[in-house]
Automatic annotation (TrEMBL):
Top EC category: hydrolase
Alphabetically ordered keywords of this record: ATP-binding, Helicase, Hydrolase, Nucleotide-binding
Coiled-coil ranges per UniProt: none
Pfam families named among the record's database cross-references: DbpA, DEAD, Helicase_C
GO molecular function, one term: hydrolase activity
Entry keyword annotation includes Flavoprotein: no
Family statement drawn from the similarity comment of this UniProt entry: Belongs to the DEAD box helicase family.
Domain DEAD-box RNA helicase Q: 4-32
Domain Helicase C-terminal: 216-377
Motif (Q motif) on chain: 4-32
SUPFAM superfamilies, alphabetized: P-loop containing nucleoside triphosphate hydrolases
The protein's name: ATP-dependent RNA helicase DbpA
Residue ranges occupied by any Helicase ATP-binding domain in the UniProt entry: 35-206
Amino acid sequence: MNESDFNSLSLKDGLRDNLASLGYAQMTPVQAQSLPRILSGVDLICQAKTGSGKTVAFGLGLLEKLDVKRFAVQSLVLCPTRELADQVARELRKLARGVHNVKVLTLCGGMPFGPQIGSLEHGAHIIVGTPGRVEEHLRKGYLKLDALSLLVLDEADRMLEMGFQATLDAIVDKMPKQRQTLLFSATYPDEIRAIAKRVMVEPEVLQLREQHSSASIQQHFYKLRDNSERIEAVARLLLEHRPDSAVVFCNTRRDTEEVASALRDYNLQVIALHGELDQRARDQALVCFANKSISVLVATDVAARGLDIEDLDMVINYHIARDAEVHTHRIGRTGRAGSSGMACSLYTDREARKIERLQEYGNIDIQSGELPHSAVLTSPAYKSPMSCLQLDSGKKQKIRPGDILGALTREEGVSGDEVGKIHIFDNCAYVAVKRKVSAEALRTLSQGKLKGRSVRVRKIR
């Protein structure tokens, strides 16, 4: 039997059958190398990026070990952001379909505290959450981890960058010492080694550097005379290549706001994403970028975690990343799944040392290219392909994606292929439609009904 086949693993029948029904046959490199170790019970540090299949790896590990008849929290997965926690919880529920009555509960900041207390009182097998909110429930006595046997730290490097080190220590202090701990991180800095020493027992280390072929990612570098040229350089690149989706990475929160504001002066559709946005603004920014009603997202590395973008056309490094691994992680967000992508990096003489480190780390020869001509700045601004409509009803009003799609396409409404992504939150929902039919879509939803009631709809992009 092929060693990368899921059937080569010793898994419960329900898990194996469900994997087959989901079409999961061959393991990714991360899964093939980590799952046997996870199932054997060792502590594991795994260097793996978003999109490598790591959630399936640790998800199968914790579901295999789960005793469904024991109704207590047996596994805890900690994530840096609510978006990532939601993604992980969705994946775990999907994987658990073959095992009866598995309860997965999310505990994240930015959500009401009271309903989470009620959910905890009803019990759960698996908790997925952000460190701050999990620690708060522990401190106040609503969450008990006495029966915990498995701890997962997902994207641990970002949790440390966001200042969660003391919070993680406080959470670990409240759980049994006899447990398995799995740590996943896109990079492997000294801070990861330090926390691993405190919370793990003789961990095995698995480092998988994702290889991107030059065919999938075109990488370009542009040397500038000084920092004053950076904004215009970004504008030239965007107006020349006109990507449907591009992320401009900045090293600081302050830069994200300044860059986004300056790019709007070039009539580009831009939104900034950083840690100081409130949850509603963050949700809206991520939705508008994911559904392509905003073409350009300006973000810090931490804020960009949890981005669920399948086909990112372009990445621009406003500054070179502080770490060569972070640079690789940034550009790896484009050129996925066989599609081609472009990564452009700006630098000055003051970043010469970073350039040297990139050359050594990636074994590449970096040569400065020519920026698009300044004449491109006078070309007409381009619009993102979609518009975004916001509805004042969501999950709590029992609204589902099919309800919105049905309302849009009934009678003389818009056609199904003119409707894009639909995102539903507790009390609101967002739907993307082709820009040319946005007025018609707004009229159709405003005049019609969802679940027998009128809804307020407004165009936000």
